[in-house]
Amino acid sequence: MTRDESTALLLAARAGSAEALNRLYQRVSGRLLAIVRIRMGRDLRARMESQDILQATLVKSFERLDQFAGGDGATLMAWLARIAENEIRDQADFQHRQRRDIAASIPLDDAHQVMATRVRSAFSQVAIGEESERLEVALETLDADHREVIILRKLQELSFKEIAT
User: Fold this and answer.
1) How far apart are CA 93 and CA 12, in angstroms?
2) d(CA 98, CA 86)
3) Rounded Cα distance, 112 and 92, in Å
4) CB–CB of 74/3 below 8 Å?
5) Distance (Å, rounded) from C-alpha 12 to C-alpha 26?
6) What CA–CA distance (Å, rounded) separates 73 from 4?
């Protein structure tokens, strides 16, 4: 799907078309998930599911779609990425507080829940696939500026002029 098709879907969704909104979210969710996983980093990915951040991002964007000022698919991706980054930051802060609060001890009765969480995380990493994992590893080896350019171009679909700005 091209940028023009994304823009047409966005306009139809803003006009009230539930089908257009659904198709638009289907179109952006894969790229948005990649952004979420990269922005989360390994530590946060080990403690929570990236799909949860994606879902929270899409819900918040749906609730605030009337506040979105952009008019095309590229600005929509940038807006969604900002919502996701805020959600990631909030979750990282929450996880850090939780970890600090329970770091002293974990009751043996709750040990099975900790193990279940680790198993779920491992399963979700396998489910996402090797290609996504290789991309994450490769992007994490880049310095922050180069990584940002690739994310803006390939995942948020910004033009080279927009990236330069």
Assistant:
1) 36
2) 18
3) 23
4) yes
5) 15
6) 8
In this prediction the pTM is 0.62
- Which token pair is 98? 């939780």
Whether 116 has a pLDDT exceeding 70, the answer reads no
Look up residue 17 and give its two tokens. 């078309």
The number of helix segments (H) and strand segments (E) in the chain equals 8, 0
- DSSP string of 64-100, one letter each residue: TGGG----SHHHHHHHHHHHHHHHHHHHHHHHHHHHH
Predicted confidence (pLDDT) per residue in 19-46, tens digit: 988 888 888 888 899 889 888 888 888 8
Contact 65, 58 (CB under 8 A): no
Phi, psi of 79 (to 5 degrees): -65, -45
